[in-house]
Design brief:
Length: about 170
């Protein structure tokens, strides 16, 4: 069905202004919207920084990050896939569960014993660092992220970085 151009323009304006939410189950727009919501809900008093080793990598390249926090807490690192449909909890993980960070310090990830790498496909992905004041339930967090959900119920700070991935 073809819609009049004025209706398309109004719909686009509503989406761009944030008045229209993407439909449930849609791809990257919904997931990116959820990540944006988390960023907006972060406490302004809990400063978090996130630096990537590079902002552009080839599929298969190693990725390193540095998370800094102005307050003591627990670090959680999430990755939104370049296809825009997957959200993964990448830290803490089965190889490294020590996610406490002292106030005014930084944490380099990955630490020895595990690796983070670009997994494809080529495109733009996002990495999100969240620091909470209390440890989160990892089983519930992993279950939620597998469904593309991210709901932090503890005071937290957050930072996000964009990573462009190219073909090898």
């Amino acid at each position: 069905m073809k819609y009049p151009s004025w209706l398309n323009a109004i719909t686009l304006a509503l989406v761009l202004s944030g008045c229209a939410n993407p439909p449930a189950g849609s791809s990257d727009a919904t997931l990116l919207h959820r990540i944006d919501t988390v960023m907006r809900q972060a406490s302004p008093t809990m400063t978090v920084g996130l630096k990537l080793s590079a902002t552009e990598v080839k599929t298969g390249d190693a990725i390193t990050t540095e998370v800094s926090s102005g307050t003591a807490g627990f670090v959680y690192l999430f990755q939104m896939g370049t296809e825009g449909k997957t959200l993964n909890l990448i830290f803490p993980n089965a190889m490294d569960g020590a996610n406490y960070i002292a106030a005014g310090t930084s944490l380099g990830l990955p630490r020895p014993g595990w690796r983070m790498s670009a997994r494809g496909p080529a495109g733009v992905g996002h990495i999100l660092a969240v620091v909470t004041d209390k440890p989160l339930d990892l089983l519930a967090l992993q279950s939620a992220t597998r469904q593309g959900q991210l709901d932090v119920r503890s005071p937290f700070g957050a930072a996000m970085a964009t990573l462009r991935e190219t073909a090898p």
